[in-house]
Amino acid sequence: MTGVAVVTGASRGIGRLLAEALEGAGWGVERGSSAVADVTDAASVRRWVDDVLARHERIDLLVNNAGVVDAEVPLEESDPDDWWRSIEVNVRGPYLMTRAVLPIMLEQGSGRIVNLNSGSGTKPGEVASAYNVGKSALGRITGSTHQSGRRHGVLAFDFAPGVVRTDMTRSMPRHDDRTEWTDPAEVVELFLALTDGRLDAWSGRMVRAGDDTVEALLAATPTLAPGHRTVGLVPYGEDDPLR
């Protein structure tokens, strides 16, 4: 067995795709769902992680996949409860899972955390603003996890799967006229490269299926510099004091 992987939101869609890919690659996979654990509830997360650890004695990979999208309306028309629920699932969920698993990985001296992010996290959203806010915040969680873990053998990645045809994407009006979808095979290929160590140099950064290939990322690795493929402040020029 390659290792023990925990995948949240694995009952359908991207989560199920990734869980099946890991199993095919020889991983022992613990699949999460709303029936297994509520990722927004600290006690529920703790019970699940403790149960996994008791049975396997280690956790080598965490995939924070569970996520939701808020209603596709402008911020001023959004429902506060719907908006905040999106933040809770997309931010609090990965935080609680990472907070529970990261100490285990640090003690082991190894581990990887893959956060399912999106290009929406790199820009403001005209509609469904909570989704953009949540994915931006998730990128900060990834960066902080990278900072905490990199010297101890624990790495973290933002993984954008592109736009795969799933129940969630089909329910989103923004995709009603879409004719091009990301091939699930491309998602799996890039994801497995993050989990098996080939793309460890990209820890703390975002990669996107459908645009990135493993070969292209490996070729670009020598050119990486601080800030590449991360969300940050763009200065107005060389004399900008906030550079």
UniProtKB/TrEMBL annotation:
InterPro entries tied to this protein: NAD(P)-bd_dom_sf, Sc_DH/Rdtase_CS, SDR_fam
Statement: the UniProt record of this protein carries the keyword Nucleotide-binding: no
Keywords, alphabetical: Oxidoreductase
Annotated GO MF terms: oxidoreductase activity, acting on the CH-OH group of donors, NAD or NADP as acceptor
Residue ranges of the TM segments: none
Superkingdom, taxonomy of origin: Bacteria
Phosphoprotein as UniProt keyword: no
SUPFAM superfamilies: NAD(P)-binding Rossmann-fold domains
Family of this protein: Belongs to the short-chain dehydrogenases/reductases (SDR) family.
Protein name: NAD(P)-dependent dehydrogenase (Short-subunit alcohol dehydrogenase family)
